[in-house]
Design brief:
Blueprint: H1 9-15, H2 17-45, E1 60-66, H3 80-84, E2 112-115, E3 120-123, E4 136-143, H4 149-158, H5 168-176, E5 186-189, E6 213-215, H6 237-258, H7 262-285, H8 292-297, H9 303-319, E7 325-330, H10 343-367, E8 374-379, E9 383-389, E10 393-397, E11 401-407, E12 414-416, E13 418-419, E14 426-428, E15 431-432, H11 433-443, E16 453-455, E17 458-460
Parallel strand pairs: 1-7, 1-8, 4-12, 4-15, 5-6, 5-7
Antiparallel strand pairs: 2-3, 4-11, 8-11, 9-10, 13-14, 16-17
Helix pairs in contact: 2-7, 6-7, 9-10
């Protein structure tokens, strides 16, 4: 089509092609310069609370991680046909990839009963949590892609089972910041050092300030866990302040001479954070102000529940002080939830350790009004097979298992999805791990497709190139 003045669009584009290229190049360079400059300034302002993409249902998340893989068919997903067909062969094909061979079907050794107005089925393993079922949103169709602990842990925590990627806590930190400038946005309490270890709470290529701050490790009791070097007994605060000011001035001069440096900016900011944490962390860990009724509620007065109960209590104390993402890990070096044998003995020990503390945490959050804007996520890296390994164990099962959410944004007493009649494969309303990530980010007010970070020539996100929000579970 020709312009009335006799100058076609094609001629105009041909004659000014070089000019358009120059305009595009200038635009790209100015944007890159702005991004680089912003990276430095963001590193100094990273503790500031950031605006979500849309109105959030939750302001923070507590992840109760059950390392090893609790059995969904023995906890929260009752399978009558599994009970009926105990000892019979599985009537359909097992997965092509299995962690280890399994035999015939194995019934659950625990009885299930219905609880609450929702009529939710819960096994005898969780008598205290059974009283909370009307606050829980059960996700029965979760599935992953890796049958080994290492790959499955990384998939759950980072969205990838074969590459080093930022953890979901790091993504939440990057997207939202923290509500307390004296604390990090992401705290992990007694994390495991196995099966991916620090990568499960690391920041990978995101800025260093996004990574989780560990409070102890799984191999030590929670009562002795602390943030390393949170207190300085050698120098008074006044002298530390003088040292930090001098270090900041030296680094600022270096930045002035060399230009923006995101790594150095982050390091300066982290020095400042470490200094401020000295006043806040000891206060959070000092639970002497907690009444005896709260201590009993978390099971601190009983040896079997005291350790995990303290972790859950600390999670609440971090949550009410503005930490965005708090992870609590139940793990030990012997049993965990990984019962390839002695299913009854192992799961009973584990459930006894966590049942009362988790119920106490939910009740405490609810009583304080914190459950209204706190999302609680419970689960392991996978479930267990309904078929027996040996005579009395269950193998890893990433093909279908149960997680649950509670609190802000989710429908209480609701059940979403299901595995098949025996509990081997996710069947109805399936939720891949990427879907779980997309959903929890949505509840926090983040569009998982917009929360991206450019690295090595491409944009990355927690959900990679997939993930869908399970809108059906939202209240």
């Amino acid at each position: 089509m020709k312009d009335p003045r006799g100058y076609s669009r094609r001629t105009m584009l041909r004659d000014s092609a070089v000019g358009f290229g120059q305009l595009a190049l200038c635009g790209m360079l100015s944007r890159a310069a702005a991004d680089e400059s912003d990276t430095g300034s963001d590193a100094l302002r990273f503790l500031a609370s950031k605006q979500p993409h849309f109105a959030p249902r939750a302001r923070r998340l507590i992840f109760l991680f059950m390392k090893g893989g609790p059995s969904h068919v023995d906890t929260f997903e009752f399978k009558p046909r599994l009970q009926r067909d105990d000892g019979k062969p599985l009537p359909f094909a097992k997965p092509r990839v299995q962690f280890a061979p399994t035999n015939n079907l194995l019934r659950s050794p625990w009885k299930f009963h219905q609880y609450g107005e929702s009529g939710s089925w819960v096994s005898q393993l969780f008598p205290h949590l059974a009283g909370c079922v009307d606050d829980l949103c059960m996700l029965h169709g979760v599935h992953g892609t890796n049958a080994a602990h290492g790959g499955a842990l990384l998939k759950l925590h980072t969205g990838s089972d074969n590459f080093v990627r930022p953890s979901m806590g790091a993504w939440v930190s990057y997207g939202l910041g923290t509500e307390n400038e004296n604390l990090p946005a992401f705290v992990t309490i007694c994390p495991t050092l196995a099966h991916g270890g620090v990568k499960n709470w690391g920041s990978a290529f995101l800025p260093a300030w996004c990574q989780g701050t560990p409070l102890g490790v799984a191999s030590q009791p929670a009562s002795s866990a602390t943030v390393k070097y949170a207190t300085n007994h050698r120098f008074p605060r006044r002298l530390q302040r003088i040292q930090l000011d001098l270090l900041r001035d030296v680094n600022r001069q270096h930045l002035h001479e060399t230009g923006p440096n995101a790594i150095l900016e982050s390091r300066i900011a982290l020095f400042e954070l470490a200094f401020r944490m000295q006043t806040e962390i000891p206060q959070i860990q000092d639970i002497s102000d907690e009444p005896s009724s709260v201590r009993r509620q978390y099971g601190l007065d009983e040896k079997i529940t005291a350790d995990f109960g303290l972790q859950c209590l600390l999670a609440r104390r971090f949550a009410e002080r503005g930490v965005r993402f708090i992870q609590v890990t139940h793990s030990d070096s012997k049993v965990q939830w990984d019962q390839h044998s002695d299913l009854k003995q192992g799961h009973e020990k584990n459930a006894l350790e966590v049942d009362k503390p988790i119920a106490g945490l939910l009740a405490d959050l609810k009583a304080r009004g914190l459950l209204e804007d706190t999302l609680v996520l419970w689960g392991g890296e996978f479930g267990r097979t309904p078929t027996a390994q040996g005579s009395n164990g269950r193998d890893h099962n990433p093909y279908g298992f149960t997680m649950w959410m509670a609190g802000a944004g989710v429908r209480p007493g609701f059940h979403y999805g299901a595995t098949d009649e025996y509990g081997f494969y996710a069947r109805d309303d399936k939720l891949h791990i990427h879907d779980v990530h997309a959903t929890l980010l949505h509840i926090l007010g983040i569009d998982h497709e917009q929360l991206t970070y450019r690295y090595a020539g491409r944009d990355f996100r927690l959900t990679d190139v997939s993930g869908s929000v399970a809108h059906e579970i939202l209240s």
